[in-house]
Specification:
54% helix, Four Helix Bundle (Hemerythrin (Met), subunit A), mainly alpha, single chain
């Protein structure tokens, strides 16, 4: 379960396409979802960045205490998993073990989503651990639930 945001369906589909054996596609989607969540976290914290330097952005979020070191490392592993070669279909993509790399990226994506969208449920009520959930005036929370 994660927040019902624009990247939620892609995150669920990433798992499904991996399950169905489309490992290169799962690798691509894992990159896109991680970058979407990173941008979301930066914006939700009111941070203005003048560049697209992902490693520096992650280091900044960890240094500010906005993200744990483990979550930052998960983002960096995904970013470092041949992102440019895969997205631009460079010849090096033929040498990538997309099955193993996509599996690791999905595990890292789960780490990221658990941290960003972690909740507790005291008295059966959904209580977000961070400010990344939108809570409706009636106290309900829009979620993307996947089985």
């Amino acid at each position: 379960m994660i927040g019902a945001y624009h990247f939620a369906q892609a995150s669920a589909e990433c798992i499904e396409i991996y399950r169905d054996g489309y490992f290169l596609s799962a690798l691509m989607v894992s990159h896109a979802v991680a970058e979407g969540i990173l941008k979301f976290v930066i914006e939700r914290n009111g941070i203005v960045r003048g560049d697209d330097d992902i490693p520096t952005a992650i280091a900044d979020l960890v240094a500010r205490g906005i993200m744990s070191q483990g979550c930052g490392e998960a983002f960096l592993r995904i970013y470092g998993s041949f992102r440019n070669h895969v997205h631009h279909m460079n010849p090096e993509v033929a040498k990538v073990n997309s099955k193993d790399l996509a599996k690791r990226n999905l595990e890292d994506l789960a780490t990221i989503e658990r941290e960003i969208f972690g909740v507790t449920t005291p008295d059966g009520k959904l209580m977000p651990n961070h400010k990344y959930w939108d809570i409706n005036p009636d106290g309900t929370v829009p979620v993307y639930f996947r089985l």
